[in-house]
Structure formats: C-alpha cells, structure tokens
Amino acid sequence: MVLKNLEKYNLILASASPRRQQLMKDLGLTFEVKPADVDEFYPENLGMTAIPEYLAQLKADALNGSMGVNDLIITADTIVWKDDKVLGKPSNQQEAVDMLKSLSGSQHQVITGMHLQSKSKKISFHAVTEVWFDELTDDEINFYIDKYKPFDKAGAYGIQEWIGFVGIYKIEGSFYNVMGLPIHKLYQYLKEF
C-alpha cells in the first residue's frame, strides 16, 4: 500500500455503490464494505455543500456503534444541485425523465460530501464539479433510461455511461466526483489522516 500511514487501520467503505468501490480498489486500497442504512433526510436550512457533508456524517454515525479501535470509516454522499434544489435518485421512470429534461441544455453542480472517521479523528470535506449538458431529445432521454436504468444515481445519470458520452460537453472540476467519489481529494485527505 502506498499510504503507509493507513496500514494501522481497517478501512471500511460505508457504501453499496459499485462505482465507489471500484474507484477505491483502483486507488490501491484494501477495505471492507459495510453499507450504512440511513434515511437520507436533512434539515431544510442546509445549503448546497452542507447537505452531502451532513448525509456522509449521518452514514458514519450509523456505523459508529460497531466501530473497532483500528477502524477508519469512509462515507460519501453525492447530490446534483440545479436551480437551488437537490435532484436525488429518481424513484421511477417519469421522475428520471423530468430530471434529465431539467438538466438538458443547461449547467448544474455535482457535490460529493465525504466523511472520514476513526475512534480519535473525524474529517468532513466536499468537492464541487460544474457540469454542462447539451440539449437532449426525448428519444435520447428515453433510450438512456430504458437501457441504463439510472435509478440509483443522483440526477438520474452517470457521466461514465452513454448519456455522458453524448450529452455532457464540458465539466469544471473532478470527473470522478461526478461518478460519486472525488478520488484525488480523498487521497489527499487520507495521506494526512
């Protein structure tokens, strides 16, 4: 492992996301997966960057009771922010269509909040990426939803999938943040943990 300071820890990724798990593996980290089962509700007064940080901490707190002395819990939550509101995971086909129509031909932000927690230390941080979509046709939206079923993705899309190839013409910030894990920023914080 490149990060020798982490050898004393048992890393726990509190996420069922296959994308987050793959990015952590690609970073060369050995970890166990223990998804945190929490209701993702947050106080209405929280702002764009505070919401995903709050939810990431909520996930860590859910595992706190079972935390071992050498455990380091890593949690993340990603939101899509458009017109001063959160676009979460769509619960059905129509919601996915509505979300993608709202993103079509416009700019939005993707924010991932992260929380690292051991018995003796806690750190929260976030990453913001600006994303621009071309105009999407109804046929493109319906094809994507029918083929890729983006119901587990904030904003109803995955940048690494077909819709990202044909629809996203520009980003400012981390590509991996839009996938759900700002891996470069996470690495920097893990180096200092």
Describe this structure in words.
Nucleoside triphosphate pyrophosphatase that hydrolyzes dTTP and UTP. May have a dual role in cell division arrest and in preventing the incorporation of modified nucleotides into cellular nucleic acids. Belongs to the Maf family. YhdE subfamily. This is dTTP/UTP pyrophosphatase. It is a single chain. A hairpin with a 2-residue loop joins strand 3 and strand 4. Strands 1, 2, 3, 4, 5, 6 and 7 form a 7-stranded mixed β-sheet that branches. The longest helix has 15 residues, at 50-64. The chain has a single domain, classed as Maf protein. The chain is elongated and about 50 Å long. It contains 7 helices and 7 strands, in the order βαβαββαββααβαα. 34% of the residues are buried. It is of the alpha/beta class and 193 residues long. Helix 3 (93-103) crosses helix 4 (138-148).
Write the layout of secondary structure elements.
Blueprint: E1 10-13, H1 18-26, E2 32-33, H2 50-64, E3 71-82, E4 85-87, H3 93-103, E5 107-117, E6 122-133, H4 138-148, H5 162-167, E7 168-172, H6 175-179, H7 183-192
Parallel strand pairs: 1-2, 1-3
Antiparallel strand pairs: 3-4, 3-5, 5-6, 6-7
Pfam family, one: Maf
EC number: 3.6.1.9
Enzyme class: hydrolase
